[in-house]
Amino acid sequence: MAAGHGMQQGPMPLPGVQHVVAVGSGKGGVGKTTVAVNLAVALGKMGYKVGLVDADIYGPNVPMMLGVTRQPNIMDENRIEPILSHGVKFISVGLISPGDKPMVMRGPMLHQIIRQFLQQVVWGELDYLIVDLPPGTGDVVISLVQTVPLTGAVVVSTGSSVALQDARKALEMFHQVKVEVLGLIENMSQMKMPDGSLLDVFGAGGTERTAAQFGLAFLGAVDLDPKVRKGGDTGMPVALAGRGSELGGAFYEVADKVVAAADKISNEDVLEIS
Ligand SMILES: Nc1ncnc2c1ncn2[C@@H]1O[C@H](COP(=O)(O)OP(=O)(O)OP(=O)(O)O)[C@@H](O)[C@H]1O
Ligand SMILES: [Mg+2]
Q1: Pocket test for ligand 1, best of 229, 234, 251, 254 (most atoms within 8 A of CB)
Q2: CATH code, 50
Q3: Is the CB of residue 182 less than 8 Å from the CB of residue 154?
Q4: CA 127 – ligand 1 centroid, Å
Q5: What is the structure's pLDDT at 7?
Q6: Spatial distance between the Cα atoms of 64 and 244, rounded to a whole number of angstroms
Q7: 31: Cβ below 6 Å to ligand 1?
Q8: Number of domains in the chain
Q9: Which pairing describes strands 152-157 and 17-24: parallel, antiparallel, or unpaired?
Q10: Is residue 148 assigned to a domain?
Q11: pLDDT of residue 5 exceeding 60
């Protein structure tokens, strides 16, 4: 048998795609998709070419949060055209199997879908391909790292001890699969009350302390605010309001830090080669 025939290919860079950055958490519901979507929109507004893979096959929320549920075009040779919304090209199982019917499938099929989303989608030239991960530390990450080399991952948590307990597991998982963690984000950090006071719901500051314990960067804090939830529910992410906006601004600060970390990694690669 010819070498490599029928065998699993190792991770291969996607032609034209500069950086692949995964957004994970450990705990469910802490705001991965909200962060992934707003980070993608912010990067797009900053002038970068951005794609977003919804890798949450069982709970694909990206189409709703980006406000589009159109079926993507299937082109020649099963190439899939991504959907464009708010300057972000994206793909999701939610586009292919819309509505409330769950996708019921086994592990190998899930792996196939992740591969297809990366390799068969016509991404074109991208500076950043963001990958919104499902909760937990499971199969999808393995499929992802077997398919493409990642620039790194960002880990989302609230400040609560239980969310951080799971976030630490996610850090350990990324370590095991040799994905660099670019930093941690605290979502639903503080809530501004109508009288101007701050309500600390989930233990603000916990994520920054955890980042420091692990010697990792803290990428920023996003307030807990109903407008963030509403932006997601209506397909109008708060980052659309721009860098100067009260709620959207936080995602631009996160984006700045992600860009700086990704640039640093690119430069290190150049140094290693030369
Ligand atoms: N900063 C925030 N302020 C208010 N609501 C928020 C904020 N971040 C996220 N939400 C809301 O909390 C809910 C969960 O967020 P999201 O879906 O982004 O989490 P997730 O980590 O992707 O969840 P899952 O683990 O199910 O994929 C959503 O309704 C979202 O709109
Ligand atoms: Mg999600």
Answers
A1: 229
A2: 3.40.50.300
A3: yes
A4: 25
A5: 52
A6: 25
A7: yes
A8: 1
A9: parallel
A10: yes
A11: no
- Written as one letter, the residue type at 100 is D
Q: What percent of the chain has pLDDT over 70?
A: 96
Nearest Cα to Cα of residue 33 among 218, 41, 252: 41
Q: What is the pLDDT of residues 41-54, one digit of tens each?
A: 999 999 999 999 99
Is the per-residue pLDDT at 55 higher than 50? yes
* pLDDT at res. 2: 41
The answer to whether 180 touches 153, Cβ cutoff 8 Å, is: yes
Residue 133 phi/psi, 5-degree rounding, is: -85, 155
Q: How far, in Å, is the centroid of ligand 2 from the Cα of 55?
A: 9
Residues flanking ion ligand 2, Cβ below 5 Å: 32-33
CB of residue 225 inside a 6 A radius of ligand 1: yes
Give residue 157's domain range: 15-273
Answer yes or no: is 140 within a domain: yes
Cβ atoms of residues 181 and 154 within 8 Å:
yes
7 domain residue, yes or no: no
- Kindly give the interhelix angle for 226-233 and 32-45, rounded to the nearest 10 degrees: 80
Please state the pTM of the whole predicted model.
0.95
**What b-and-e string marks burial along 176-200, b requiring 16 or more CB atoms within 10 Å of the CB?**
eeebebbbbbbbbbbbeeeeeeeee
Residue of 146, 152, 151 whose CA lies nearest to 184 = 152
User: What is the average pLDDT value for the chain, to the nearest integer?
Assistant: 93
CB 228 less than 6 A from any atom of ligand 1: yes
| pLDDT at 67 exceeding the cut of 50 | yes
pLDDT for 103 beyond 90:
no
- Distance (Å, whole) CA 155 – CA 36: 10
Residue 6 has pLDDT above 50, yes or no: no
151 pLDDT more than 70:
yes
Query: Which ligand 1 atom is nearest residue 65's CA?
Result: 31
Q: How far apart are CA 105 and CA 98, in angstroms?
A: 16
As a whole number of angstroms, the distance between CA 56 and CA 81 comes to 19
- Considering the domain boundaries, does residue 3 fall inside one? no
